[in-house]
Amino acid sequence: MQLYVGTTTEFIDDAVQHRLAEVLSDRFYDYYGYRAVSELQSWQNSLTAMALQLRHANMLDQGIVVEMELPLSSARLDCLIFGRDRTDRASAMLVELKQWSHVRPSDVDGFVLTFVGGKERDEAHPSLQALTYAEYLEGANEVYDGAVALRPASFLHNMLPADATHLSSPQFAELLERAPMFIGRDADEFAAALNVVLGHGGGEAVMQAALSAPPKPSRKLLEHTAAMIAGEPRYTLLDEQLLAYRAVLAEVRRAGRTKTEHSVVVVKGGPGTGKSVIALNLVGTLAQSGIDVRHATGSRAFTETLWRVVGSRAKPQFRYFNHFGEIQEAAIDVLICDEAHRIRKTSNHRYTPAHARSERLQVEELIRAAKVSVFFIDDLQAVRPDEIGSSALLRERAASIGARYRQIDLRNQFRCAGSDSYVQWIDQLLEIRKTGTFVLPPDDPFEFEIMDTPAAVDERIREKLRDGQSARMVAGFCWKWSMPDSSGRLVDDVVVGDYRRPWNARPEATKLAQGIPKAPLWAWTAGGVDQVGCIYTAQGFEFDYVGVIFGNDLVIRNGQWVGQPSVSRDPMKRTSGARFVDCVKNAYRVLMTRGLKGCFVTFLDEETRRFVAARAGMDSNRTASA
Question: Among residues 54, 381, 448, 500, which one has the fewest Cβ atoms lying within 10 Å of its Cβ?
């Protein structure tokens, strides 16, 4: 998605005629379904300044794209200008625009403190933002990895020389070599740089070729986990992701100096915002630096898959939340807690002997176990009534023991084809939070289809598998979950008409027939496609495509969501009382956001199907079939 595509001559003319911000605003509304009120003034000021700079540099035969979404992401770069350099090579300059006029130092490497959005915030140095966007683009699209040379830069048109001192300080020297920064007084220097990279013109043809090039296949987290844990960077972290990663490193440095106080860092974000990517990158970086770092989750499936991917020698480093109650206070340097919404009240479980039971809060055990505790959390992903993890709880418990507290909110979306709109639509549809996105935008990049039957969904999933994509079937917990038969074969519990499939294996199943993966490895092992996954094996994982059977445990009646506990076969949810509806809503939210590229869903309840089809902008009387 690009809000503006044209030649530099057209861009300059639109800016001079004061049409530019209006054009972007209308395009933004067409795509996202709401007005970008907060960005309008920024576009007017920054893009006019950019247009004046292009005219000053005599850039009249170049192509320009403004506000372009990075592939498979909701992050948008400000300005991408195309042309040919002095050697006649196809080139592009990625320019990040800022209206900043003052900054001051931050304790986070590569970041500064500046007044944005009504308060002072940690923000990436503009040239660091430009550089990471360029690196992401090179990794996501082959055209920038060879055919078109990509150069990053930043332009702070309001910044005066005296106020730019810190941004130009020696600590940023290497960064500025790779991504030069220009301020308002640098018009001639900026013009010279533009001419070196783009001065031979011909930019419109270069731009059209670049925009038509397909993105590279999306990277799957588990395929790169071992490399990340070994300290090899495989993902380019952007914006708040990079802030979270470097803020944790800053807290680790601080902890090494103070040696007395606990630090708590909370990284909060919805599905697909990259929480696990940051967590695993931190494990790798800290371990390579000789820091005692542990990783913990409340998910058996995710933890055991990590053991399989990384190897059994990594088991002591990857544990569960309930393994830290007996550890001496601050014995660990850093504890990375992923899927922190799955924290429970205590670490007791059904196998805990009476003498070992404790009333200590699990969240307090986790905070006290390490000098720095990092919690990756989505407040809207608790799917069982005994899961109590939330950012509010973490803030309160950190304060109760006098720990430093820092929270970073992730905004950019990297799953669901980078579609923020799709996630906002799901949240509004299920009435989990108010987003204002009542109807899925018609040109949304995420592939969403409602299909007539589970068989039709299953066929689409297998079609994607034949095309080399990763894909799985999942369902609401509305069917019994049997143990394997005497030969280790799974029972076809999920039955809808002629469609018959087994659930993934039960966690306690020890004897399984050849080719049937154990429950924790269902998402990772090829044989998992022959079973239907439940919420407890799907949560925390991602696939290119997900197929969802939306059961009758949650239905629409007279425009309202109604829970039907009698239909549920989940013993935890059936006894959850008033929390039943919230837990089931969260479960379907998780299932319907597992896809990187698309989701195919079938509804067993006709009224619910019609309701969702209307909200998806589809004909409520007809849906797709195989």
Answer: 500
Please report which residue ranges of 82-183 form alpha helices under DSSP H.
126-140, 173-178
Contact at 8 Å (CB) between 189 and 143?
A: no
Same domain, 31 and 62: yes
Strands 111-116 and 263-268: unpaired
Residue tagged 């199943």 (tokens): 509
pTM: 0.86
Q: How many domains does the chain have?
A: 3
Q: What is the CATH number of the domain that holds 87?
A: 3.40.1350.10
Helix axes 37-56, 8-16, angle to 10 degrees: 120
Claim to verify: residue 25 and residue 165 sit in the same structural domain: yes
Pairing of strands 404-409, 494-496: unpaired
Tokens 């480093």 sit at which residue? Answer: 317
What single letter denotes the amino acid at residue 143?
Answer: V
Strands (E) located in 272-377? 293-297, 318-320, 332-337, 370-377
Exposed e or buried b per residue across 369-407, where buried means at least 16 C-beta atoms within 10 angstroms of its C-beta: bbbbbbbbbbbbbbbbbebbbbbebbeebbeeeebeebb
Q: Tell me the Cα Rg of the chain.
A: 26
pLDDT tens-place string over residues 81-118: 999 999 999 999 999 999 999 999 999 999 999 998 78
Q: Which amino acid makes up residue 49?
A: A
CA 593 from centroid of its chain's CA atoms: 11
Residue 174 and residue 306 in one domain: no
Phi and psi torsions of 377, nearest 5°: -145, 145
Co-location of 376 and 460 in the same domain: no
Alpha-carbon span 438 to 426, nearest angstrom: 9
> What are 23's two structure tokens?
């054009």
Q: Strand 494-496 relative to strand 499-501: parallel, antiparallel, unpaired?
A: antiparallel
The CA angle 296-299-300, to the nearest 5 degrees, is: 100
Give me 409's structure tokens. Answer: 């909110």
| 431 dihedral zone (left: phi>0; alpha: psi -120 to 50; beta) | left
* Number of neighbours of residue 493 by Cβ within 10 angstroms: 16
Q: For residue 623, is it within any domain?
A: no
95 is written with which tokens? 């320019």
Q: Which of 259-263, 468-472, 607-611 has the lowest mean pLDDT?
A: 259-263
Report pLDDT digits (tens) over 221-253.
666 666 776 667 677 889 999 999 999 999 999
Note whether 591 and 546 are within 8 A (CB). yes
Identify which of 276, 556, 588, 574 has the alpha carbon closest to the alpha carbon of residue 432. 588
Other beta carbons within 10 Å of 163? 15
- Rounded CA-CA distance 603/617 in Å is 16
- Judge contact between 554 and 584, C-beta under 8 A: yes
